[in-house]
Amino acid sequence: MASRRVTRQRAGALNDENTVVPRLTRAKVNALQNEKAVAPLAAKQVNNTVPAPAVAGKKRAVLGAKSSNDTTTKADSKKEGIDEKFIKKALGAKGVLSTKASATNGVHKTTTRTTSRVPLKATIPEEITEKEAKRSNGGSGVMGLRKKRVVAGEASKEVSKAVEAAVKATKPAMKAEPKQSKPKEEKVSAVAAVRSTMTAVEITSVPEAKGAVKAVPVSKKVAEKPAPQPLADDDDDDPLMVAEYANEIFEYLRALEDTTAPNPDYMDAQEGLHWEQRGILVDWLIEVHQKFHLLPETLYLAINIIDRFLSVKVVMIDRLQLVGITAMFIAAKYEEVFSPHLGHFKYLADDTFTEEEILRAERFMLQTLNYNLSYPNPMNFLRRISKATDYDQDTRTVAKYLMEISLVDYRLMEYLPSHVAAAAMYLSRMILKRGPWDPSLLHYSGYTEAEIKPVFLILVEYILRPKHKAFFNKYASKKFSKVSLLAREWAKAKAPLFLSTDR
């Protein structure tokens, strides 16, 4: 193992950074060969060659410190000085030999520059003066390059001046050319051609007559707003919107509105019931719906089941609450993913009815309705109309409050859910000052302002004088941005403009 270690040290001694290895350039080698021919070197000068390898175990000398191997004599340094003068004379350039720092430290930097390069004077153009050429000979030649660039810039300036002079020489000739005025007859014929084409309703471009001036025709008829695009055109990339079937879906929902609408005068056939009692029941169901955190569709379907059942069956006052709680139980199982347990509905009814009574009422009500629960609630149509408003959240929140008025106010029972949704959106935009009822809203709702007006007046009258506490407090909460309070303040200021004094 020891022999291997010594071998490694010997191999690496030639590259040791502390060894004094004189730099032999091509010119120096030639000089040494000439000297060998005259007289052989002395025995003492053998130390100028590569020194003997270091003995194993000795530490390397610190960089910059004096090395024991540095045995160069004064005669050697004087010889090196002669060599320097000889090389300077041969090359005619400075800075070819090693620097002063490398000579004292015994460290020589390796460089890739060739010492036999051509002097910089040969590469300098003739335009530069002798003074500038002498300045560029000493150093790295940067000044020579800079002067070359300056000369190129001056040459380009001279070229630009010559171009400017040529342009100035051509300007009088250009001004001397008279403008060719177009004949009057051709202008008249062009105007006549334009007027003849303006009679059409849609004009895209006018054919150019020979020598005629281009004119953009203006149609006499005022251009109308572009027709709104169908809902399916904007949601093709969203699979959840089922844009391919959107139009067919809403056509089907509009057809269902007539089949699932209750009788608006069914209270005339009820002996012990009144509209006020129905309003109290609906107000209580809104509170139950809020405690269970159910979907809005569940509440609308529950009230629709109650009204449709009461339209065909006579119910006594003591069984009205059973009808309400059973309708909510059916709607939750139909609309919700996880519907509340039957025991929860029994508890909210203060254990007035047993679970068996609720299940028997459920079977009886479903048979009466022929198991038809496909009710198109106003929420579906509100979402469609919101497409025209870019789904404005504030407008939708106020519209939800206005739509739920149709649940507690029996006067809105005769209007279809799509009609109520359109009126709610119309009044919501009026309260929030969102602009007029434009063609896009007309397209998506399907109702004009004249058709909306009857429902609009009922909504304004109700928000001016709300009658149901649980319903009002629900939308007076922070969750719904207190829109019931906002609507009431608006009605106090604006309702007299829409309602007559005798109402």
From TrEMBL:
One of its GO terms (molecular function) is cyclin-dependent protein serine/threonine kinase regulator activity. GO terms for biological process: cell division; mitotic cell cycle phase transition. It comes from the Eukaryota. Residues 376-489 form the Cyclin C-terminal domain. Residues 283-367, 380-461 form the Cyclin-like domain. Keywords: Cell cycle, Cell division, Cyclin. The keyword Protein biosynthesis does not apply. Gene3D superfamilies: Cyclin-like. This is A/B/D/E cyclin. It comes from Terfezia boudieri ATCC MYA-4762. The lineage of its organism: Eukaryota, Fungi, Dikarya, Ascomycota, Pezizomycotina.
